[in-house]
Backbone:
């Protein structure tokens, strides 16, 4: 069964930084699936934040996320990171990782709260 475990969230002041960690089942990396981070703000749908192809490092950010966060991967540890800087209250919410194609289930996510 494919699993994702997200961590690294917390409470941070506006302008602060966090690094989120996504640990995935090994099969995700061995079968060459893209790894994606999603953000779900309260009362809103999940929205793509960033995508990485761990086998070649190819990265994609939607236009609305350009120059905001940095995604990276450590394939040896089946882990993908999301470095978040200059956070603002709109970045608050749950952050989830998953694969493309979709794995079939969601992890518990990690909560980010940006507040003074």
Residues:
């Amino acid at each position: 069964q494919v699993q994702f475990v997200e961590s690294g969230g917390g409470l941070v002041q506006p302008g602060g930084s966090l690094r989120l960690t996504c640990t995935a089942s090994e099969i995700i990396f061995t079968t060459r699936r893209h790894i994606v981070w999603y953000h779900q703000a309260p009362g809103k749908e999940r929205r793509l934040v960033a995508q990485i192809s761990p086998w070649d490092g190819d990265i994609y950010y939607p236009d609305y996320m350009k120059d905001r966060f940095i995604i990276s991967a450590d394939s040896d540890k089946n882990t993908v990171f999301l470095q978040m800087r200059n956070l603002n209250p709109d970045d608050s919410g749950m952050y989830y990782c998953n694969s493309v194609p979709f794995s079939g289930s969601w992890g518990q996510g990690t909560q980010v709260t940006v507040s003074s």
Remarks:
- The two ends are 40 Å apart (CA to CA).
- The chain is about 5% helix and 50% strand.
- Residues 11 and 113 are 5 Å apart (CA to CA).
